[in-house]
Amino acid sequence: MLKKSKNSKYPLPPVPPNVEEILKDIETFHVELNTENLSRQSPGSDAQHLDWWTRFEQAVADQKSLIMLSSEIKSYELKLESKKIELETEAQLLENAVQEQRDQIDEVLSKASN
């Protein structure tokens, strides 16, 4: 019927090693640990770890303060906008009052000149 096509475009993944191959590789694997270097690096690595941790805590604290600062800025922007609207309203009311007084003065002057 239908033939199964071979996957020639993508090769099969490699076969994982069996237990015997792993054990054979373990025998050839050797790491030399110099205790003098380890003891010399230990205090430095602790200091590096503490330094990293303090820098991390400082970054977290800075981020929290930036978030708080951002919210404060937004609240100040809202207050400023409301004050701006309030001032514009007061200015419009004053302008209307001045215009009414001008109209009254013009009316009185026009009656007096007649």
TrEMBL record:
InterPro entries: UPF0449. It comes from the Eukaryota. Pfam families: UPF0449 (PF15136). Keywords: Coiled coil. Residues 77-111 form a coiled coil. This is Uncharacterized protein. It comes from Ceratitis capitata (Mediterranean fruit fly).
